[in-house]
Amino acid sequence: MKKLSLVFALLFACFTFSQEKTFKITGTLIAEDSNLPIESATVYLERIKDSSIVSYTISDKNGFFKIEGRTFDERLNFFASYVGYGVYKKEIDVTKDVIDLKTISMQLDNQLNEVLIKSTAPITIKKDTLEFNVKSFKTKKDATVEDLLKQLPGVEVDEEGKITVNGKEVNKILVNGKPFFGDDPTITTKNLTKDIIEKIQVVDTKTKSEAFSGEAGDKENKTINLTIKEENNKGVFGRVAAGAGTDDRYEYAGMVNLFDNDRRISVLAGGNNINSPGFSFGELSKMFGNASSVYINSNGSFRFDGRSFGGGQGITTSRNAGLNYADVIGETVDISADYFNSSSNSENETITERETILADSRFFTNSRSRSDNDTDSHSANLEFEIETDSTFQINIEPSFGYSKTRTFYNSNEETLDEDMVLTNQSSVNSDVESYAREFSADISATKRFGSKGAFVRAELETNVSKQESDDFLNSVAEIFGTEPETIVRDQFTDGVNDSYGFSTQLTYRLPIIAKKFFLNFEYEFSRDKEKNRESTFDFNDVSQEFGEFNTALSTDFEYTDSRSIPTVGVTYSGEKFYTRLNIGYNIRTLENNDLLRPQFNVERQFKNLEASYRVNYRFSPKASIYGSYWLSNNPPALRQLQAFTDVSNPLSIIIGNPNLEPSNRHSFYAGYNGFDWQKRTGFYANVNASFTNNQVVSKTVIDPETLVRTTTYENVDGNSSFGVSATYSKEIKLDTLKSVKLNFRTRYNRSKNINFNNDVQYASTVNTITPRLGIDFIWDKVMELKPYYEINISNNAYDIEAFDDRNFTRHNAGLRTATFLPKKFEWENDIRFNYNPNVAQGFQKSAWFWNSTLTYSILKDKGLISLKVYDLLNQNTNARRIATQDYIQDSQSTVLRQYFMLGFSYKFNSLGSKGETRDDDFFFF
């Protein structure tokens, strides 16, 4: 019966296609008041029967439009829409192949007549906002916001959920203008469903104070605001899911959302032992979480908005719960808050083989390690936005955090010379328990003056962190050769690391030309102080206690970083052109007080010029170019400045250098992005470069007999990097049901690094190119095919004869499929192939990785039964090769292997009109 249904569906699709007629409609839009062409107006066609979108486009700079498509209707409704003008409507006959509407005069809103109606345009382009009308884009019934975003023109969503709009990354998603579980986009897009969303707005990312003061914000990143339908502003909706599988695999997740006009409360919880963040509900892309990255990188750790869901590599069991709250208090205060608790256990075993290349020899290191990590963390974030009047705003954002971690670790390592003679070996067993408490607060107050754009803003940022650790260590290090030595340690280390920091900033903007040209004056003072104490005690065999203080392995110091930075700048913000130049003078003092070794106390002062420049030119709402420059200074790390000898690892000794200088870096970035709405093509390109002097690098000297490593740090000049990338996409509509989308992306990077090899300075140059081609075939409501191929080619070249140039190649290919027939069934597959021919013998060079899931909708599409298979071919591996300037390392660690899982999810929804609830679909759990 199922096969027969599929045959009938295919026959019906073919019959429908045979009845369709092609059409092409052209015309020009002009403004009635000025007789000038209207650029970026939305032109679209709707079916008369059900108002569904047939096709749409955007007018060009001459006001010209061409809209093409196929339909079996003889007549369609034609619309033209532009902000500030009424919507033009006309019923047209599409039985002709070519229709010329000639010139259409658009009337102002205050001159409307019966021809002009309320806009339902699928896309609206305003000055700084791109807006999508959700109902114009068709998706499956159970679609999430992520599914919807994938249908929008110019929007790309990759396998990990990262979103880009016209080539720029989305780093924040809001719901009705407010955060939803912090700023993490993934929780929002993977858990909210399309059916409650009315519009999607895309704008440049701004802080609340930048939006209030009218500043330009971050032009390199985008914010998406999801507007909830007005009738969905009161009620309860959510989802629950659970699954059980072979090898004792399991997962469960649930989310409940309560909307009560301006008040919004959301609760979520989840748990699993399949390396997933824990908020999945049955669909392939969500239930497998970061499976692809586990395959390539073997990383069982996930992070959302700074929160950790997992404890590193290996197999992770996680449990998570969260609460989000947003409300309006009175008429002046907006509040939002979220709380998260996450706990996890990670188990991992790693095998590593490293070949270290010296100027006149080489040696080999083999190691095997095992770790067991337990983590429990809590975090809470609050945001208060207070507007006492239309000219004064206060923002207060405190955050709290607490975590407890315990790690058991053991390892065995051996080092052999180039004749494969054992020179040293070690074994380590440790048990570390640590606690961390953190608090931070960002406070800003902004006062606007007049109507020309003047404002003054005061900001205060402060943070406090307290960390404690108990570390029990047993280790044995054996050094062979003419003077053999065995170093045995049985120790306890009590560690305390406290840090305090604050930063104050005062900003004044003086308008020279109202709302366009400004002078900017800023002053920042900041001070960070860190107290670090590690008290190590040796075990006493007589007293059977850790009672003997070991000075050589203990530290007790205070580190202070103070900065005073006055800055002056200019800003021009026009209709199409934006530019900003800032020049600052950084007076920096670094101070290190060693309470155990006063002779190593250090106080250094540095004075450096800092500068930044940004420029952006918008040719039209469809295309723009941008560029930026930074001159920045970074101080050496605290550990690099400490002059004492660290012998905590007897085979790897570290000595700091108190004479290090701050690094000085020049960075450049430029790009172009554009999307042609007429041709459905997008092209995005960018180039970046950096040049660094006084870069702090490691300088290691290796004893030729024992291979014991002694490392210090030096400043070097000449480090640089250069990169260029380009992306091209093209959507081709085959008919009303079928389309093909081409995606081509390529990246090229070149980096030059100055390093030392056994006291010999040398330069290494790494060239990498990574082209990727993907083709998406979409047959609406029938099937999807998305194959891709990517190759990574790199060359490492050295300017000393001791190192041979090396070439590496890695291949990645994949196929994602989805089948939506027969009705209520959905079958998805994610097939990946990885081939790394350069890994060492004994490590797996290639593997196929196939995930598959089959779902069936029940209970009027509210329920979903799923059967999924992870790693169907049982070939998951994470063998990888790392090549640096002076070593090549192959490693392989624990990965999640094949399992089968049966799951069920249920969604509920009682959302009703504003002020009312709908009782026919209420669900408690």
Primary descriptors:
single chain, 925 residues, mainly beta, 26-stranded antiparallel beta barrel, eight-stranded mixed sheet, 65% strand, disordered C terminus
Which percent range fits the helix content?
under 10%
- Beta-strand percentage? over 45%
| Average residue-wise pLDDT | 84
Strand count, sense and barrel status of the largest sheet are: 26 strands, antiparallel, barrel
Number of helices: 7
Runs with pLDDT <50, length 5+?
A: 4-8, 111-116, 278-312, 913-925
Number of strands: 51
Structural class, judged by helices and strands? Answer: mainly beta
Distance between the termini: 37 Å
Question: What is the global morphology?
Answer: globular
- The radius of gyration is 31 Å
General description of the model:
It is built from seven helices and 51 strands. It is mainly beta. It is globular. Strand 44 (783-798) and strand 45 (806-819) form a beta hairpin. The longest helix is centred in the N-terminal third of the chain and has 18 residues, at 2-19. The strands form six sheets. The protein has a 26-stranded antiparallel barrel. Strands 9, 10, 11, 12, 13, 14, 15 and 16 form an eight-stranded mixed β-sheet that branches.
